[in-house]
Write a structure and sequence with these properties.
It is built from 1 helix and 15 strands; from the N terminus they run E-E-E-E-E-E-E-E-H-E-E-E-E-E-E-E. The protein is an all-beta fold. It has a 4-stranded antiparallel beta sheet, with no helix packed on it. About 25% of the residues are buried.
């Protein structure tokens, strides 16, 4: 099944409408579900310029959907990330945690923990267009690697480790451009 069900959630059922939580203004939220056995464990979502969302799971699954005005998923899809399930590939090779993209050329970057890496994908996710395993990431703990990756407006990238340091900070890498 490619179905993704959206169940609207309220911040506070006793008080409907937009709500403020600190600087955050709550507008809408949904619980996502699917009967597809590969769906779940979504680690990150990115919003596209056309209002659709693309996300990755920690099992190397790619999910995508848009939102209809009736709280239904528009053109949902669920599929394995390219190069995540080939011969010799294990869970350690597909533990995807972060996703970001370039609005201009449509490319995506996905960060992985365990076997620490950043992989670049074509705009359609039809194929991987490169992978890098930065030396600085290889010292990060096995299951606490690049939990997040973001492409800044100026073209730089930041990857942040899930691992908490003794001083309550996280290691991060700043790339001057495409890390791949």
């Amino acid at each position: 099944s490619q179905n993704i069900a959206l169940k609207p959630l309220m911040l506070d059922p006793a008080h409907s409408g937009p709500r403020r939580v600190g600087d955050l203004i709550f507008l809408n939220a949904w619980e996502l579900g699917s009967d597809n056995e590969d769906f779940g464990g979504i680690s990150a979502l990115t919003a596209l310029s056309d209002g659709r969302f693309v996300g990755v799971s920690d099992a190397g699954t790619l999910v995508g959907f848009g939102l209809n005005n009736d709280d239904r998923a528009d053109r949902p899809f669920i599929s394995p990330l390219p190069d995540s399930r080939g011969a010799g590939a294990t869970y350690k090779d597909r533990d995807s945690e972060g996703i970001t993209h370039d609005l201009d050329n449509g490319q995506f970057w996905v960060s992985y923990e365990v076997n620490h890496a950043i992989r670049r994908f074509s705009r359609s996710f039809a194929r991987s267009t490169g992978i890098v395993r930065p030396m600085e990431m290889q010292g990060w703990p096995g299951n606490k690697g690049a939990e997040c990756i973001i492409r800044l407006f100026d073209g730089r990238f930041v990857a942040i480790s899930e691992s908490l340091e003794d001083d309550d900070t996280h290691q991060a890498l700043l790339f001057s451009g495409d890390p791949v």
